[in-house]
Amino acid sequence: MRAVPEVGASRPEGPTGAPRRVLAAMSGGVDSAVAAARAHDAGHDVTGIHLALSRNPASYRSGARGCCTIEDANDARRAADVIGIPFYVWDLSDRFHEDVVEDFMDEYAAGRTPNPCLRCNEKIKFAAVLERGLALGYDAVATGHYAQLATGPDGLVEMHRAVDDGKDQSYVLGVLDQRQLAHSLFPLGGSTKADVRLEAAERGLLVADKPDSHDICFVADGDTAGWLQDKLGDRAPNHEGPIVDAETGEELGRHAGTYGFTIGQRKGLRIGRPAPDGKPRFVLDIEPVSGTVTVGPHERLAVRRLTGIRPRWCGSAPTRLQGTVQLRAHGSELPATVVVSGEAVEVELHEPAYGIAPGQAAVVYDGTRVVGSATIAATA
């Protein structure tokens, strides 16, 4: 675990020190239930809301796969009853489909690898929900994310990593801007997951031992390639094409859709025969127009420079920063020099990264503080 100096995990009071009207986003899991309970204990006027994001929600989830099922909505409602707060279900399925699901399909069809959790946080949980909440007179949205907030020396709200490295979710929150952070509460940022589960049990919350959800919530069985095949199929312009060896230029096989591949992928290539040196091949490049998937040795995945677009800054935009970047939700921090010029973000890595795909997010840190993020457009 890391120590974050002078960081308040929940920022429980408004500018005047008075309790706030808070919307607690309750997914039906243990984290959001305890976050809502802690906000209520802090004296806030809390209302629980469950976001109905699926147009056709399943009755039951399968283990830790997926979320947003009818079972999850019922679990959230029971937790709200135990806490003693009002509870409502908000149907945001149309906006979720347009802003998250359609974006996910479009990005894969274009040969990029998106992160739908970042897009959901940006467009749904801290945009659509916050917009509606502010219009209804609420002051903040509380979630069960593991991150910490503090007021910096310049008066701006800073977001920092959680104290629990293993549960830190600041990466998927790197798309939040200053206005959104100023209306956010993360009550769990100073806790470990074990502590949260124990607290849930002590509070009598039935979700105390509920498994965490994993994978992409709208791909409940975890088969992303199969889901994309079903949704895109031969409607995509790149629905079939060659698999080419980067070393020899030889066509090694054919594929049924570039959307079934991502940079760095090793398994499922179905190219039949090994490389001459016997080493495994990895996906090095995806060309969506011709539908060509290029494969080759692991060392050719090395990336030392990134170009980012569509930056989202948590506070003031930097011009040049010696810090770190995180390139995957569960990836390690890499030392880097970040140079910002308008909407362009250039990242020079001090050590190589492997398997980095356009469409992924590069989240920039200054120590434990999240500076912001950008979408990777090119690597070198």
Tell me what you see in this structure:
There is one protein chain. This protein is an alpha/beta fold and about 375 residues long. The protein folds into 3 domains: about 20-210, HUPs (Rossmann fold), CATH 3.40.50.620; about 225-295, Roll (SH3 type barrels), CATH 2.30.30.280; about 300-380, Elongation Factor Tu (Ef-tu), domain 3 (Beta Barrel). The protein is about 25% helix and about 30% strand. It contains 7 helices and 17 strands. The strands form 4 sheets. The chain has a 6-stranded antiparallel beta barrel with strand order 12-15-14-13-16-17. The protein has a 5-stranded parallel beta sheet with strand order 3-2-1-4-7, with helices on both faces. It has a 4-stranded mixed beta sheet with strand order 9-8-11-10, with no helix packed on it. Helix 1 packs parallel to helix 2 and helix 3 (about 95-110) packs antiparallel against helix 4 (about 115-135). The longest helix has 20 residues, at about 115-135. The model is unreliable at about 5-15 and about 60-65 (pLDDT under 50).
